[in-house]
Write the structure tokens for this entry.
Amino acid sequence: MTKNNKQLDKIIALAKRRGFVYPSSEIYGGFAAIYDFGPYGSLLAKNIKDYWWKKMTQEKENIVGLDSAIFTSPKVWEASGHVSGFSDPLMECKNCNARLRADTLLEEVGVFADEKMSEKEIIEIFLNNKDKHKCPNCGKKDFSEPKSFNLLVKSNLGNFTGDFEKDPAYLRGETAQGIYINYKNVMDTSRVKIPFGIAQIGKAFRNEITARQFIFRTREFEQMEMQYFIHPDMTKDEYEKLKKERWQFYLDLGIKEDNLKWKKHEKLAFYAKEAYDIEYNYPFGFKELEGIHARGDYDLSQHSKHSGQSLEYLDPETKEKYIPHVIEASGGVGRAFLAIICDAYCEEELENDTRTVLKIDKKIAPIKVAIFPLLKNKEKLFNKAKEIYNNLKNQYYCEFDSSGNIGKRYRRQDEIGTPYCVTVDFDSLENDDVTIRDRDTMKQHRVKIEDLETFLKDNLNV
Ligand code: ATP
């Protein structure tokens, strides 16, 4: 096992042990490529989403929010090109029936299929190199012919015929389509003018063939997408501005800049003008965290053509009529979550011990403050600590913990990334002060109880 796989295994174990991420349906033996977020995981995911939402909508005069439904008319996915072109090359191992992606197997023999290759080319190259490939599951070399497999997840919503394949309604494969089909509604009902954006956070579903690498690639996931509608002449400037902002977003979440890099798409989709991904250095290598793409007028033109509705914009000043161009920022909550915990994960050697600590940026840490009475069975300490907890919990997610020794309580909070621990001891009863311990430096100092709120406000940055 490589060092990096070990690192990922440790992170997965901590995520499970501390209630961040659970494999789905565990009591029934699991359900592949689906995960549930536990008490701390759901808080961390919420904090990431809230920060994104604040940056994207609250702090932007010309970007509005949307919460469109997961289901749409199936026509949406025909117009968008997903029904005909959203696929991966799938094949099966004839010995163990493992489902595999031809492009992934090619990678294992050093052939990297990127945007330069069409799916047909990938399949062709695979077939030409057939003898080199082994099934990663059983080691045999007997595969079925690769076939194009559509990633859209189908449902029988509204279909009472019993024929599941007939007119399926799709679970959305991305949140962006919900934005395009509401572009006109938003224009007509809010006071936006080009350039403007529509932001949305929500679930998306893809029948990923090989879902591996923990929550990096799952079949149900959440996206944070912003589609920005512009005049074609604005593309270059607005695209550069968006790229800068999205890079800064990840730095603001505490990710080390060395662990981020840009990847330019070498061969663009036929409609795209420019496409870059922000990649994060996951334990399994640099992989896509978010895509920033200039999509031209493809999406609105397609929906205009298929729906028969004009989606043109009339500039109120110049009277110019045109279909707006789109630039988008499209990121995954799960991938941001994984990048954040990988980046924050540290093992530190102490004098007689080691500690595992998640140095998560304070503003998104799930629990901001833990409050401990030094001893659990001393009523006065207990009550004083409870009083502090009751005061602070209106403002911050706090935890009260009176179990075990203080060292163990610190370790637990370190592992869930709590920035501050407050301990009430016997001096607190005399002096109305407490010990406050910093997660990262482990330094402790005394603060008057009446100054605690100000201290936290100044230091938590929320
Ligand atoms: P990949 O090439 O890794 O499959 P993609 O290029 O298909 O990703 P997009 O369609 O651009 O991804 O989706 C935008 C974002 O949504 C991605 O940058 C990623 O953060 C997230 N995302 C896409 N697919 C998944 C998935 N299966 N699981 C988790 N997140 C995903």
Observations:
- The mean pLDDT is 93.
- The chain is about 35% helix and 25% strand.
- The domain at 367-460 is CATH 3.40.50.800 (Rossmann fold).
